[in-house]
Structure formats: C-alpha cells, structure tokens
Amino acid sequence: MREKHFIDSHKGATGIFILGLIAWHDAWANPTAMVYLALHGSYGIFWLIKSRVFPDKSWEKQAPLWWGVSIWAGLSLYWIAPWLIVSGDIRAPAWLSAAAVAAFAFGVFLHFSADMQKHVTLSLRPGKLMTDGLWSRIRNPNYFGELLIYASFAALAMHWLPALVLALFVLAYWMPNMRRKDRSLSRYEGFADYRSRSWLFVPFLI
C-alpha cells in the first residue's frame, strides 16, 4: 500500500469517528459538537476528492504496514479535540464558533486552491519555479491554509492540548518539510529573489 492509502482512509474515517462520539455520548444537542462535525467531517471529504482529482505525488511512496499504522496513530492525535468537546460537553461561545468557521473557510480556500495551482502548474510547466498566484508572496500557502483549518478545530475545543498537538505537527513535520523544499528549490534561477520577497509559511511572521 502507498502512504496516501493510509492518509486518505484516516481522513475519510474522521467524520464517522466524530459521529460515533456524538452518538455514544448522546451529544446531539451540543451545538459545538455539531459545528465540529460539519467542519472536520467535510474537510475529510474535501481531502478525499482532492486525492482523487489532483493528488499530491509526495504521498505516492510505498509504505510498509508498520509505517501506515504510525501514520494513523499520528493523525489520530487530531481526534483529541472532538473527544474533548463531546465527552466534556464543551460549548464554545457564538463568537468563537463564528471565528472558527471563518478561519476554516479561509483555510480550505488557501489549502485546496494552492494545491490545485501547484498540480496544474507542474503539469503544464514541469521543471519551472512557481512564483505566481497564491504562491507569489507565500512559499507554502497550502500549509498556511492547513494551519488555519486545524487551528479552527483546536479553537472549538477551548483546551490547550489540541493546540499543543498542532504545534508539534508544525515544528516536527511541517517546518522541516518546508525547509527541505526551500533547499531543493534553491537550484532554480530566481529562487534567491523569490525567497527575499516572500514568506515561508505565515504572512508577516515566518
């Protein structure tokens, strides 16, 4: 099996897991739980569509079972947020729910639009440095979008643990990947100028 099979199966299972949590705890009347189900559940569906229509080639590597299980275990840390919300009957204030929905929507736009632009550009202009569109000022707009998505999930839990999980993913996995990509792109003419006028990840910060 390939890495994508383990990642995709986990993304697809997320909505089912959250729905099961809600049913187990009879949390149908918890508005935050329902908002969380709508956001994280739909994100899993969006991911499956993306994987089918414009897949990321970096996930095409063959993966032994032990590595696939590790992928599942790591991604399952993101399930801490819905568990906290449902089991603790957490109910976020209306303003926080609205902010989370807005952050999620903006994150989904950035994440999937940037991935689509990358897919099309690499298909039509293979071997060329991509410095336009959503990639003109941020070298990893897809990661920034994903940060907004998972930050919206963590915010709804109103607990430090989901935020810690997200920070660990950013520091231990996302940032090293972005640094490696920068080193790989440094062989292209014009990268130094592109790097000097763009942010790695988060506008105005990194």
Describe the structure.
The chain is an all-alpha fold. It has one domain. 70% of the residues lie in helices and 0% in strands. Helix 1 crosses helix 3. It is globular, with a radius of gyration of 18 Å. The model has no long low-confidence stretch (mean pLDDT 93).
Search tags:
mainly alpha; single chain; 0% strand; 206 residues
Number of strands: 0
Average pLDDT works out at 93
Structural class: mainly alpha
**Biggest pleated sheet:** none
Helix content: 55-70%
Task: Show unreliable segments.
Answer: none
Q: What percentage of amino acids are in beta strands?
A: under 5%
What gross morphology would you assign? Answer: globular
CA-based gyration radius: 18 Å
Order of helices and strands: HHHHHHHH
Oligomer: single chain
Q: How many DSSP helices? A: 8
Instruction: Give the end-to-end Cα distance, rounded to a whole number of Å.
Output: 36 Å
Domain count: the total is 1
